[in-house]
Amino acid sequence: MKLAIMQPYLFAYIGYWQLINEVDTFVIFDDVNFIKRGYINKNYILMGGKSHRFSLELIKPSQNKLINETKIVGNFTKLLKTFEMAYKSAPYFKNIIPLIEIVLNQKERNLAKFIGNSLMLISSYLELDTKFIYSSDMDLDNSLKGQRKILDICKNLKATNYINSIGGIQLYDKKIFLEENITLSFLKTELAEYKQYENKFVPYLSIVDILMFNSIFSIKIMLKKFKNY
Q1: Which H or E run contains 54?
Q2: Could you tell me which residues come within 8 angstroms of residue 179 by beta carbon, excluding any fewer than 6 positions away?
Q3: Cβ within 8 Å of residue 222, ≥6 positions away
Q4: At 140, phi and psi to the nearest 5?
């Protein structure tokens, strides 16, 4: 069984979705500390031909709180209008804006569950059959940290393969995973350009940008554009 473990990211970039597509089970790592400067509640879209940051407003976010202890204010109307303004002329706007609206209008106010629901909704649209699990719902040894905690999750779910983004290549040791009969590999995204209006291509934007400019068929091709290490 192939497994990936990632913190919940709102409307994450294509590499995050490549991990989701590549595994059987995706663990939403929600019982770790919230990172203010990370991408948990923010990302980038195309606005006026440039990268523009959007964010989900939170109630007193703190790095002393876990992600699943963080609550959302709910600036959904403002966010939806931002997406509408940015993509009203995009080819798949009419298909995607109702999906974005469903994501933003959900009643869930727990940040981890809110983003988890968004991952499942977008996965359904993209016809992905990956299973999602919250790490906080698992019976784990919470005294473990770092690599040992990841291994504990892998063993709990009987994973044979653990896939991480390339950013984890300095954090995890293939030999230690092999000692537990788990094959560790790292996914590195290959840049796939696509037409964004008539602008010069702006890379590494949110999945929202990709959804607005590409068909499901085209996105499925993009999901396979990576190298394994």
Answers
A1: strand 50-55
A2: none
A3: 14, 192, 194, 210, 214
A4: -120, 165
Residue 76: band (very low, low, confident or very high) from pLDDT cuts 50, 70, 90: confident
Residue 88: partners with Cβ closer than 8 Å, 6 or more residues away: none
- Written as six digits, the tokens of 150 are 């990841």
Tens of pLDDT, residues 141-180: 888 999 999 999 999 999 999 999 999 999 999 999 999 9
**CB-based contact 6:19 (threshold 8 Å):** yes
Question: Strand ranges (DSSP E) for 60-192?
Answer: 71-72, 131-134, 161-165, 183-189
Q: Where are the beta strands (DSSP E) in 135-201?
A: 161-165, 183-189
How far is 126 from 216, CA to CA, in rounded Å?
A: 6
Of 58, 106, 111, which Cα lies nearest the Cα of 80?
106
Ordered DSSP codes for 175-186: HHHHHTT-EEEE
Torsion angle (degrees, nearest 10) of CA 184, 14, 16, 48: 140
Phi then psi for 166, rounded to 5 degrees? -60, -25
